[in-house]
Structure formats: C-alpha cells, structure tokens
Amino acid sequence: MYDVGDSLPIDELDPATVLVSGPAMSGKYELLLKFLIEGDRNGEGGLFVTTNEPAGAILADMEERAGETPELLRLVDCVSEQQALEDRFPEERVEYVNSPGDVTGVGIGVSEQLRRFVEDDTERTRVAFHSLSTLLMYSEVETVFRFLHVLTGRIDGIDGIGLFTIDPTTHEEGTVNTLKQLFDGAIELREGEDGPEMRFVGLPDAPEGWVSFE
Q1: Do 181 and 175 contact (CB within 8 A), yes or no?
Q2: Which range marks the domain in which residue 105 is found?
Q3: Res 81: pLDDT
Q4: Side-chain half-sphere CA neighbours of 20 within 13 A
Q5: Mean pLDDT on 70-97
Q6: What is the DSSP letter of 27?
Q7: Mean pLDDT for the chain?
Q8: Looking at the domain assignment, is residue 179 inside a domain?
Q9: pLDDT for 137-160, tens place per residue?
Q10: How far is CA 37 from the centre of its chain?
C-alpha cells in the first residue's frame, strides 16, 4: 500500500495505474506535484514524465512547494532540448526525448529511470505522467494505446503506482474510453460549486461520489 493521505482524500492506495481525468485548470498538475512530493518524504522514488513543461520548470515548481529539492526525483523531459540543470540537479536523473511524438523514446527514457531506481534499491516508486492529451496531439490513439500497454505493465511489474493525466474535453469520448481500459481505475476532477471536486472510479476503499479537495 502507498500512503497518499497528503495528496488525495484517501489514506492509502494499492500499487496501481490510474487515469486522472479533468478539464484544464481542474488541478491535475498540482495533484501530480503533491503526489510525488509526498512520496519523496516517505522515502519513495518519484518519476515525473513531462510532455508540456521543461524539466527545469517542473523542478522549480516542486522545489517551491516542497521547500527543498526532492532527493529521489527523476524526470523524463519530452519538451526541451538536452541541457544541463547546472548544479541544481544530477545529470543522470533527467532523460531527454526529442518530442512528445517520439513515444518509443519516451518509453526508453521511462524504462531507464525505472531501472536506475531498481539499481539504487528504491523499494517503492511513484510515476506522474503529464499529459496523455499531448501525446494524442502527435500520435494516433492506437499508437498511444500500445505505448501505454507496455508502460503500465512496467509500473505494475515493480509494484509501483502511476498517475496519468488527460483532458477529456479535448478528445472524442471513444478515445478516452479506449485508453481507460489500460488502467486499474480513474480519478475524475471537476470544479464544483464550492471549489475543486474529485471522484474515484474503480479503486478499492475509496470514498463514493464527489468529494472536495485542495
């Protein structure tokens, strides 16, 4: 079980891959940051795969929220050209991919970082992927489906837990439903009357219906 009480309105989750679905500005990105910061404080590895922002921006956001550089964070950057983060971050903890359209490169980068966690005897690993919507801008749904089939299998193989974001308002319903098949469950986000709300789908011991979160 993974302790997720600091990032989600639920105490624990089993190892799983979860689709985090919600429109723009619904809190998906902030949820991923909290999710990895929480894991780092628990001594768990954290891998952030970014298709929207460069690694430096992700690192800066995590440092701002955590108050320090996460010790066990690794990144796969599909946005910027390979560049050093100076002395702020060890070079081997960032893998660079030419573009979000290179799903083979993304898969290799993720596999390399997961392998390094294993080599470092990291027993528990969290993966945050932001976002599948960007992949779908570059590749057909069939290509993304095959990529995710392999990637979710790798996360399952190390008893990890992964959150993958998608904006369902930018895709056909059939596309989202096709990708949902690959995940153990889903977390849906929306803006409610009194603020952000979240609903768990297919995950054990989760609260029923829409619940508020910050």
Answers
A1: no
A2: 2-202
A3: 76
A4: 24
A5: 87
A6: S
A7: 95
A8: yes
A9: 999 999 999 999 999 999 999 999
A10: 12
Closest by CA to 183, choosing from 138, 135, 144, 140, is 144
Provide the pLDDT for residue 169. Answer: 96
- In sequence order, the β-bridge partners of residue 190 are 197
- Mean pLDDT for 41-57 is 96
Q: What is the pLDDT of residues 164-211, one digit of tens each?
A: 999 999 999 999 999 999 999 999 999 988 889 999 999 999 999 999
Give the amino acid at 72.
L
Q: Residue 91 corresponds to which tokens in the numbers above?
A: 């070079």
Phi, psi at residue 18, to the nearest 5°?
Answer: -130, 135
Does some domain include residue 207? no
pLDDT of the residue at 84: 62
Tokens of 155: 């996360």
In whole angstroms, give the CA distance from residue 135 to residue 169.
15
Structural domain contains residue 128: yes
Phi, psi for 47 (deg, rounded to 5): -120, 120
- Dist. CA 84–CA 26, nearest whole Å: 32
Report the CATH number at residue 32. 3.40.50.300
When divided into structural domains, the chain yields a total of: 1
**Residue 13 host element (H or E):** strand 12-13
Whether residue 213 is contained in a domain is answered as no
